[in-house]
C-alpha cells in the first residue's frame, strides 16, 4: 500500500469520525428538549458508515465514509405534567428519545478512533522520514 493511500484512508476516517462526534454533540445538546407533541420532538440521529475503495488495481484498500445520518424512530419519552407550558390536552409532555449513556459511549469511541488515526498518521510520517534517510545514504 502506498503512503498516499494511507493518508487518504486516514483523512476519510478523521472526516467520518468528525461527523459522528458532531452528531453525538447535537444529540446530547437536545437530550432534554421537550415538545407538545411527538411529531415535534427532537429525534436522536445515528451516523451510518460505508466502506469506500481507495487506490487502484492490486493495491486497492478501503476507507470509511459517512453514508447517511438517520433519525432514530424510537418512541419519545412521555411524562404526565399537566402544569407544564408544553403539555397537551391530556397533560402529556414529550421528551427527546436520546439515550445519553449510549451517546457518551459513542462520543468516547469516536474520540478514540480519531486519536488512533492521528497515531497512524504520525507513524506513517516517521516511516517516510526513515525511507528518505535510507535513500539519501546511497
UniProtKB/TrEMBL annotation:
Residues 91-133 form the Flagellar basal-body/hook protein C-terminal domain. Its main location: other. InterPro entries: Flg_bb/hook_C_dom (IPR010930), FlgC (IPR006299). Pfam families: Flg_bbr_C. It is found in: Bacterial flagellum basal body. The keyword NADP does not apply. The keyword Nucleus does not apply. Keywords: Bacterial flagellum, Cell projection, Cilium, Flagellum. The basal body constitutes a major portion of the flagellar organelle and consists of four rings (L,P,S, and M) mounted on a central rod. The rod consists of about 26 subunits of FlgG in the distal portion, and FlgB, FlgC and FlgF are thought to build up the proximal portion of the rod with about 6 subunits each. NCBIfam families: FlgC (TIGR01395). Belongs to the flagella basal body rod proteins family. This is Flagellar basal-body rod protein FlgC. It comes from Kistimonas scapharcae.
Amino acid at each position: 500500500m502506498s503512503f498516499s493511500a494511507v493518508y487518504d484512508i486516514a483523512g476519510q476516517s478523521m472526516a467520518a469520525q468528525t461527523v459522528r462526534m458532531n452528531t453525538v454533540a447535537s444529540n446530547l445538546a437536545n437530550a432534554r428538549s421537550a415538545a407538545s407533541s411527538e411529531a415535534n420532538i427532537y429525534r436522536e440521529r445515528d451516523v451510518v458508515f460505508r466502506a469506500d475503495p481507495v487506490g487502484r488495481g492490486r493495491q486497492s484498500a478501503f476507507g470509511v465514509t459517512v453514508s447517511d445520518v438517520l433519525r432514530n424512530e424510537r418512541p419519545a419519552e412521555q411524562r404526565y405534567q399537566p402544569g407544564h407550558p408544553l403539555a397537551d390536552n391530556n397533560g402529556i409532555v414529550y421528551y427527546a428519545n436520546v439515550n445519553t449513556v449510549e451517546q457518551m459511549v459513542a462520543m468516547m469511541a469516536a474520540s478514540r478512533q480519531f486519536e488512533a488515526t492521528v497515531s497512524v498518521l504520525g507513524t506513517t510520517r516517521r516511516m517516510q522520514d526513515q525511507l528518505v534517510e535510507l535513500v539519501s545514504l546511497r
